[in-house]
Each structure stands twice: as structure tokens, then as C-alpha cells.
Amino acid sequence: MLEDTVGLGAVTVLGVLEQAYFSLQVIYARRKYSVPPPSTTGPPEFERVFRAQANCSEYFPIFITIMWTCGVFFSQGLSSVCGLLYLYGRFRYFQGYSASAQGRLAPLYFSAKVLWVLIAFSSLGVFLSFCRVYLNVDLLQRLGSALDLA
Amino acid sequence: MLEDTVGLGAVTVLGVLEQAYFSLQVIYARRKYSVPPPSTTGPPEFERVFRAQANCSEYFPIFITIMWTCGVFFSQGLSSVCGLLYLYGRFRYFQGYSASAQGRLAPLYFSAKVLWVLIAFSSLGVFLSFCRVYLNVDLLQRLGSALDLA
Amino acid sequence: MLEDTVGLGAVTVLGVLEQAYFSLQVIYARRKYSVPPPSTTGPPEFERVFRAQANCSEYFPIFITIMWTCGVFFSQGLSSVCGLLYLYGRFRYFQGYSASAQGRLAPLYFSAKVLWVLIAFSSLGVFLSFCRVYLNVDLLQRLGSALDLA
Question: B50 touching C, CB under 8 A?
């Protein structure tokens, strides 16, 4: 069991550390631009950092959910690599958004693409598991046999 | 293992796709009502779409957490059906809220009820597992025996 | 399997109930201070309750993720106890923030410390599992042997 998930666990811990880093940046930005809680509005420099962190936080559970679904139902290796790419994209997004609203776009599209890859392989993995469990059909094996015959 | 969770995995992928759909609606609303990021205020039409998506995102991790807890500790079938009902309720909520603040209420109450069902059966499932693991008492089996004797 | 996670399941259900309680407090505050949705601004009393709930919701998936990672890869007992402490800290934070912006600080620092403990032991657990699975080295056992020899 653990050997099928330890890579996912490692990326998960990294992801939590990244979220902690983003949260600390908001605290620093609150001090720098004098925006005490509960206020969430202030100079654009503060609002960009705040929104960058809010956006990353909003996507964090979606990312963790789909990475584990892909890892458990399809492939831990592929899923962990996508997870690392996503976290890298989110880091670039946070840096870019902190600098300018425009700067968030390229890494945002990159992160979104990685999520779509995880969604696609999760869907495939769940579908193949569904066929195996409920229809007793192993599509991957059938595909392999068909290719062997050809 | 996979056969006990493939239904939960399928509902999970559906849930992530629904969140992706909501996120896209916010992007379209930003363009339509000319509200560039990082701003989150604008005409009420935009704010309703924004808040609808924010509310669904906020509840997404709670939903995923409790659906899996209910599915693992109580019943995958019941949990998956509740999951589908919740996602349907959230879709109606998003449509209703986009149209009017009033329109969000009925589907919101429906989604909340489904969450309470998941919480109730999660609690029951965890309690029964607790009795089985730590007290070595299988309450369901005892109940069955008692009914047989009666 | 279930016996390794039933404690985590119990804390998870408690955590979801706590989030439900926070959400209800926001609904009551909206009525009390006449702040109908989709608006999220109003008197400071309302904004503090709103931000308290938003902050707890934002951290909920991070908490659940790291508690389960720590529980699965390191120790269910330690992780469940930390989970209870975190939920208690968050309850004090919500009460404190509802009363004053200053009142949120002490329980916020406490919750953050509990999260760091969970992150530290998750990292350790994932690292030890990694060594065991991929390097075939059981560091804990080696440490035990070294201590026996000494």
C-alpha cells in the first residue's frame, strides 16, 4: 500500500509547504502595505499578493484531490511528476502575480494544463477500474492481446 | 481496495470537472462585466457569479472529505449516490445564484441536507468501526442476531 | 486498513462538524448585521466573523491533507491528537476573532504550531517510507540496532 503512494505523499508535503510559504507572503504584505485584518482591500500591490494566495488556496484541494485520484487509479509516477510541475507552475504564478496582473497569466495557463492532464488520466484510470471491477473486463490487457495478434 | 472506492473516484472526477466549469464561468463573467483581476467587486451580476463560485470552492474540500469518509467507513454505494445528488444541487445553486440572490436558496438548502446525510452516516460508520477495532464489538452483527432471535 | 485510520476518520468528522458550525455563525452574523449575500463587507463585527470563517475554510483542506499524510505515513495516534488540538485551536481562534482582531492571534499561532508539528512528522514519515520502499533501508530498525549495540 505505502509503496503505491509514497511519491504522492512526498508531493503532498511539498504542496503544503508551498501553501505555508504563500500564507507567510500575505502576512508580510499586510505589514508592508499596512493592511490590518480583517480588511482585504488596499493598494494593488497588496491585493495582487492577497488574490494570488487566495487563488492558490482555492485550487489546492482540487489539485490534491485529482493528484491522488490519478495516482491511485492510474499511475503514481505520472501523477507525482504532474504534481511537481503543478507546484512549480503555482510558484511562478505567485511570483508573476505579485509583480503584475499580467505576469500571472502564463504560469496560470501552465498550471491549468497540468490539472487537465491529471483530470484526463484520472478519468481514464477510474473508467478502466470501473470496467475491471463491475464488468470484469481488463481493457488494457485486451488492448495488449490485440496488439500482440496484429 | 479499488473495488471499494471506484464509485467514489468517479464522483470525485465529476466534482473536479464541475469546479472547472464554475471557474470558467467566473472568467467569462470577468470579461462580460469588465472586472479585471485582482478586483473582486463590480456589478451585482458579476459579484453573484463570483460568490457562487467562491462558495462552491469553499465547500468542495468539505464535500470530498466527508464523501470519502462516509464511503470508506460506511458504504460506497450510499456515499456515491449522495455525492451525485450534491453535485447536482451545486449545479442548480450556481445557476440560481447567477440569476438572483434569491435563486440560490432552494438548491443551497438541498446541498446542505445532502451534506448532513453524509455527515450522519460518516459518524455512524466511524462509530461502528471504532467499536469493532477498539472494543472488539460488532454492533451490526449483534443487531442482526438480536433481530434473528426476536 | 480501517484500524489504522479510524481515529483519523473520527477527527475528520469532528472537523467537518466544526466547519458547519462556523458556516452557521456567518449566516447568523449576516442576519444580525443586515449584510445580505453576495455582499461580504459591512460593520467590522460582521467582517471579523466572515474573515474568521474564510480563514478556517482556507486552512481546512491543508489541515485534513497533512493530518492524513502524517497519520498514514507516520503515526495515527500522534496525528489524531494533533488533529484534536488543531480543531480546539481553531475554535478558540473563531471565538477570539469574533470578539476582536487582536483576539485571533494567540489561538492562530497555536494552530499554526500544531500544523508545523504535523508537517514535520509527515516529512519524516514520508522520508522513512521512501527509504524503505525505494532504497530498501529501514532507518528506524537500523537506529534501534545501533542503540542495542551501544
Answer: yes
